[in-house]
Amino acid sequence: MDQSHIRNFCIIAHIDHGKSTLADRLLEYTGTISKREMAEQILDQMDLEREKGITIKAQAVRMRYTARDGREYELNLIDTPGHVDFSYEVSRSLAACEGAILVVDATQGVEAQTLANLYLAVEADLAIIPVINKIDLASADPEKVATEIYHIGLPRDEIVLASAKEGIGTQDVLEAVVKYVPPPKGAGEMPLRALVFDSKYDAYKGVIAYVRIVDGAISRGDRIEMMQTDSRTEVLEVGYFSPTLVAAGTLSAGEVGYIATGFKNVKDCQVGDTVTLAATPAPEALLGYRPAKPMVFAGIFPVEGDDYPLLRDALDRLKLNDASLVYEPENSVALGFGFRCGFLGLLHMEIIQERLEREYNLDILMTAPSVEYRVLKTNGEELFIHNPAELPAVTQMAKIEEPIMDISIFTPARYIGTIMELVTARRGAFRDMEYLEEDRVHLTYRMPLGELIVDFYDQLKSRTQGYASLDYSFHAYEEADLVKLDLLVNGQSVDALSLITHRDKAQRQGRLLAERLKELIPRQLFEVPIQAAVGSHIIARETVRAMRKNVLAKCYGGDITRKRKLLEKQKEGKKRLKRVGSVEIPQEAFMAMLSLEEE
User: Is the separation of the CB atoms in 518 and 548 below 8 Å?
Assistant: First the structure.
């Protein structure tokens, strides 16, 4: 199709503002999917996406639409993830488009990720179409939300009112796309340059790259080269999404589609990379490529040691569809063999955990999440540490730095005090406060990622009755007074319970963790001391009392020496048990660290 009749656009929104439902209505209205095939959230193909009501993987679809002017247009829609963990995927999807529909809930208004995604779209120089969704709800206030949208810099007269659930305003959204989104400007005669905005693994076709053709054209049988990873292959198939894969002979400049590469590893074809022809390569790659960087790390261990090979196979398979998952083998004294995994954020970690348990029927144990610290040793060597067990001795460290995040919170004004109290307790530094309107405030802070990942989001939601919304992005590494907190159970250090924390909070955290473990560790026939230590200094102690067997039950009187002899024998036995006895630590103990701040 002629480029002037192509429109490439995406839908961006805060979580649960109706993005996937609007995509359903557009597909239905354009006849891309028949009424019989239609299902709710048709582009969300994973069970987890449907259950949680969020988009985890970016999806694309091609629609044919005859506009009011009588011309037929090819509309390529990319449905982006809404959660902050997947902001890199969102940025690549935006780079593949010329326009974006910004969906705002008529009952909720502008929220943190609405603004974060808007900034990404503005940065990518996209035409933005504001859509106020859910106008059919009784609590909807489109006028108030329109004012908020105007305040964030979008023209009021371009706002489209819609209800994706009821199908109101669907044609107006499509007409706005045709009118306001500019056509692509690719050069068909130039060497091929295609941006990979997502990828997935297929057992028969290898890695399938979701691409936007910027310049040139690509056909089946062409030999291609990935400009960043330097890997080469022959194209098995090209085509477009409808939303299932539909093979086509060629994809040309301006179009969105897929390339079946035959690669057996997603690492060879990463999000953000540029595809070009091996015979006539493009002189330079498209801008913006960077590998996805994990921010949160946790250990995954099989509950049954025999399941270790099954866990390794399951992670290998997940990695094929999710290049941002990073893992390496790890051995823990307490938990045996497992893997240290890197995730984009807590939601990403939760999704991987649920997929391992559901899709692969694995019974796994996850340690509390930690972040990556930068350590400068006294000999000048620089290390990146994401496991407390790897931290060098205090005498070898010159300084330790932690990742600091820029956080953005939207909240009703009445919760300012409680939010400030929460953030300050987590070592957050105030940056700015802006009133969007009389009762709505935008707060910005800088805060360590280690404080953010534990249960900050849950606390924020509970303290503001669910009204506050949160967005965050990486700022820099900054030096901090951090120490390693060890937990000793029966005199033995449990490496999986170690954590890196700020010196000021170490004593309180150590005491809370020792108290929590005392409740969770079952009583033994001998006394079990639980100690929290920083280096060789014990900062907290709790004791699990021994279960006592009444050895005097069979003595109905008689000489006291007989009773004393039995008690001495029991005492000796307990001493020996304490030396050689092992203490089983339940799974709940490893998750106790997640809720330390609740006290």
Answer: no
Of 375, 384, 357, 359, the closest CA to residue 297 belongs to 384
CA–CA dist 112, 460 (Å, integer): 13
* Average confidence (pLDDT) over 478-489: 89
Closest by CA to 401, choosing from 380, 421, 429, 372, is: 372
Percentage of the residues of the chain whose pLDDT score is greater than 90:
15
Listed ranges 54-63, 114-123, 170-179; the one with the highest mean pLDDT: 170-179
Closest CA to 327 of 364, 290, 373, 296: 296
Confidence of residue 101 (pLDDT cuts 50, 70, 90): very high
Given 127, 154, 180, which residue is the final one in a domain? 180
Please state the three-class secondary structure of 158-214 as a single string: HCEECECCCCECHHHHHHHHHHHCCCCCCCCCCCCEEEEEEEEEECCCEEEEEEEEE
DSSP state for residue 412 in the 8-state scheme: E
User: pTM score, two decimals?
Assistant: 0.71
Q: Which residues contact 15 (CB under 8 A, 6 or more apart)?
A: 53, 54, 82, 83, 113
Domain span at residue 509 reads 483-598
CATH code of residue 460: 3.30.70.240
**Quick one: which of 33, 131, 91 has its CA closest to 473?**
91
DSSP 336-355: EEEEEEEESSHHHHHHHHHH
Q: 211 and 163, same structural domain?
A: no
pLDDT class of 82 with cuts at 50, 70, 90? low
Q: Which residues pair with 238 in a beta bridge?
A: 248, 259
| Three-state secondary-structure class, residue 59 | strand
Give bridge partners of residue 74 from the DSSP assignment.
6, 64
Please report whether residue 284 resides in a domain: no
Residues across the chain: 599
528/546 Cα distance (integer angstroms): 7
pLDDT at position 289: 64
pLDDT single digits (tens) 353-366 = 888 888 888 888 88
pLDDT at position 44: 47
- CA-to-CA distance for 104 and 14, rounded, in angstroms? 8
Which position has the higher pLDDT, 367 or 171? 171
454 and 338 inside one domain: no
Nearest Cα residue to 35 out of 167, 132, 163, 162: 167
> Considering the domain boundaries, does residue 260 fall inside one?
yes
Whether 423 has a pLDDT exceeding 90, the answer reads yes
CB-based contact 216:277 (threshold 8 Å): yes
Mean of all residue pLDDT scores within the chain: 82
H helix runs in 255-324, sequence order: 308-321
Neighbours of 229 (CB within 10 A): 16
Reduced to 3 states (helix: H, G, I; strand: E, B; else coil), residue 56 is: coil
The Cα–Cα gap between 241 and 224 comes to 21
What SS3 state is found at 168? strand
Domains in the chain, number = 5
For residues 297-315, average pLDDT: 88
Distance (Å) of CA 160 to CA 183, 331, 395: 21, 56, 63
Higher pLDDT, 59 or 298: 298
Domain boundary among 352, 367, 382: 367
Pairwise CA distance, residues 36 & 53, whole Å:
22
